[in-house]
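PROTEIN DATA CARD
Card holder: YjjG family noncanonical pyrimidine nucleotidase
Chain length: 228
Origin: Winogradskyella aquimaris
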Amino acid sequence: MKDKIKHVFFDLDHTLWDFDKNSGLTFEKILGINGIEVELSTFLEVYEPINLKYWKLYREEKVTKPALRYGRLKEAFDAIDVEVEDHVIDQLSVAYIDHLTTFNHLFEGTIDILNYLRTKYHLHIITNGFEEAQERKMKNANIRDYFKTITNSEMVGVKKPNPKIFNFALESAKARPEESVMIGDSLEADIEGAHNIGMETIHFDYRNLNNANGFKRVTTLRSIKNYL
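Structure generated from the sequence above:
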């Protein structure tokens, strides 16, 4: 792979930017501000799979952005039998986005691997996250300048794994699929989506689920050096 790759495309959330950690800290802050008394660990335990479900629906164009932001909170509160009025949920959904980018923990090894790769390859981002939030995340975490192009689903009008977003990103980067690799945590959105248009892939399996899927796999970012 090292000999033919010229462009490295990263997902952002759950790949470089530690979404789970930053999201947990955000909820701790905004639930306290709004006086909602819940056990944070209990809330997060139900919220995280609900959030993943809503993002899958969002990728599949089955829910809108406002429906995602409201629905994931509503379902999480219902799941732990905490009654929160709709207008408060709306306030929380706005506060969540506002505060989320004030926490900027990266996965261990992020800066190390970016510094290693930037001397050898052109680096890029392809993300399904909301455009305004993703830009703030990268700037506040001091990683924006590593990337030559940023492709966001909102600018393309489709989401990973739709081939259009990968083709848009390749065109923006002036890159060919066969000289490009996609690195991300989602088998469906990142790995299968990129593979289907001819890109190389590396699955960042940070949860160490060890799915037997036939794709190149790492459980730490530093392990990418084994391939690139």
